[in-house]
Amino acid sequence: MSEEKYFRFPLAILQGINDYGKPCASSHFEIIDDALSYGVVNAGEGLIKTQGQEVYDEMLEEEEEKTSFGKLSYHAGAALVGASMCGVTMASCVNLEKAGAVYYRYDDHKFPLVTMKAKIFWGAFYQAGYEQGRRDPPERGISWREFRILCAILSGKKNREGFTFMGWQEIQARSCGMLRAVYKAAEFIPEHLQPPYSQKQIKRTCDKLEALKFFARCRHSKGNRGGFMAYSFKHDPKDLREAVARWASFRRGDTVRENRAKDLNYALKNQERA
Fold first, then answer.
1. Tell me: the pLDDT tens digits for 128-174?
2. CA neighbours within 13 Å on the CB side: how many for 141?
3. How far apart are CA 87 and CA 117, in angstroms?
4. Distance between CA atoms of 98 and 156, rounded to whole angstroms?
5. Quick one: which of 94, 105, 102 has its CA closest to 63?
6. For 231, what's the count of Cα atoms within 13 Å in the CB-facing half-sphere?
7. CA distance 34 to 48
8. Residue partners of 237: CB distance under 8 A and separation at least 6
9. Which tens digit of pLDDT belongs to each residue from 34-63?
10. CB within 8 A of 28, min separation 6: which ones?
11. Cα–chain center distance at 145
């Protein structure tokens, strides 16, 4: 069975950062194309970290022989290796030197990263290409709104159980390529991200994505209203509910232990005073 492939790219790519480090208006296809460029370079560099320089050099040499590109810059070489790892056809999808430039451009905007399954990413890539008249319609396209909201959720930090909590306001901010604090202070939002998605739009889109089994959701609340929404791309709904229950139980245990430690310290101090 083949191993699942992923693309990793910064959430900030949604902003369309230019060469001067500023967000600017871009087409939907340009944004997703930049994510592809960053993703293949990141995969190539990741090989060095996980397998070592020698394995990387051997693979680079093999790919250069296959493609006859000649001597490449460092990041372009990483793009060539990463493209092979991600199953990307270079001639039709990626300009190597451009990929290296995109990676360098986002050097100060790396985190948080989005880790997206390749089959989801390609659905968005081909849909955006189709909407620009560049490609045929995909069999199962991902709309621009769906892509942005998936990026928002996938950029969240997972806990030890493998899910992340995220409210609609955080999704709203992250779907504009920013964390919530940065979003609230932002003086400019690029045209391709305006207007930011409303609570109703986010709810409708998340309902649809959940129904299509892109992820499972589970609300966790201490009372009858409000609470947090847990999202998981690895659990089914039943497993997620159980995982959220374990997480909540563990958190309650932590609170009990902390309270006991405080009580013990208080008692010891009282003994010393006596």
1. 999 988 888 898 899 999 999 999 999 999 999 999 999 999 999 99
2. 14
3. 12
4. 28
5. 94
6. 24
7. 22
8. 216, 217, 218
9. 999 999 999 999 999 999 999 999 999 998
10. 128, 131, 132, 144, 192
11. 15
